[in-house]
Design brief:
This protein is α/β, with parallel strands linked by helices and 225 residues long. It is built from 8 helices and 10 strands. The strands form 2 sheets. The protein has an 8-stranded parallel beta sheet with strand order 7-6-5-4-3-2-1-8. Helix 3 packs parallel to helix 4.
């Protein structure tokens, strides 16, 4: 089975790079330096021209993933925005201070996001039991989990990602992300025959990261040699 590549971007140059590199899916964000926040409206508008499946980040603030009722209202508004632009899905997550998934909060968001595909993002990497959280994500109604296995990079967390993949039983996609590059993409993809990988595909230009179309192409070539 072909492994596909999702690329996270936060600007128009990234959108163009994804089109040139033929990314299989885009995670649309703002402020990737803060781990990705809800994208700006101008970027959503331009994304309509990309002809690439889009999942929109729904994250109203940087830092932890503990949210209030005010945050819930804002996130529902962001989901409305994703739906109005016709994106295929949304990306969100929430945790409690005790190191577990905030099931009650996420249930409200999942229910509100009816008709959209849903990725549980790397909030899962901050909980004490990411493998056990796979079952929670399945029961809540997510179709994909973006994770590094609880480590800084997916390459470091491969053994946990493998356990998560086994626990998923084909009911949910486990998508390794963080630090995925042309040098390690094949190793990560083939470890458990992951169907999806996630990367920023970034390079440095004048000390600022930018999405590199050549990296997108290189990773796709590596994982589908």
């Amino acid at each position: 089975m072909e492994t596909k590549l999702e690329v996270c971007i936060d600007n128009l140059a990234g959108l163009e790079a994804c089109m040139q590199g033929k990314a299989d899916r885009i995670e649309l964000c703002s402020s990737l330096v803060q781990g990705g926040l809800t994208p700006e409206t101008y970027l959503m508008r331009h994304a309509l021209n990309a002809a690439i499946p889009m999942r929109m980040m729904v994250r109203p603030k940087s830092g932890n993933f503990h949210y209030s009722s005010r945050d819930l209202k804002q996130m529902k508004g962001d989901i409305d925005m994703a739906r109005s632009f016709g994106f295929e899905g949304v990306v969100f997550g929430a945790t409690l201070v005790n190191g577990t998934i905030d099931q009650a909060f996420l249930e409200q968001l999942v229910t509100y996001a009816f008709g959209l595909k849903k990725t549980l993002h790397r909030a899962i990497d901050t909980v004490t039991d990411p493998v056990g959280a796979v079952n929670i994500a399945i029961n809540l109604g997510f179709d994909c989990i973006l994770s590094s296995g609880g480590f800084d990079t997916a390459n470091e967390g491969l053994f946990v990602l493998k356990e998560m993949h086994s626990r998923a039983l084909g009911k949910i996609e486990i998508m390794p992300g963080s630090g995925v590059n042309p040098e390690n993409a094949q190793k990560i993809a083939k470890n458990s025959n992951f169907n999806w990988l996630h990367s920023s595909c970034s390079s440095l230009l004048e000390n600022s990261p930018f999405t590199d179309a050549n990296k997108i192409i290189s990773i796709k070539n590596e994982i589908n040699y």
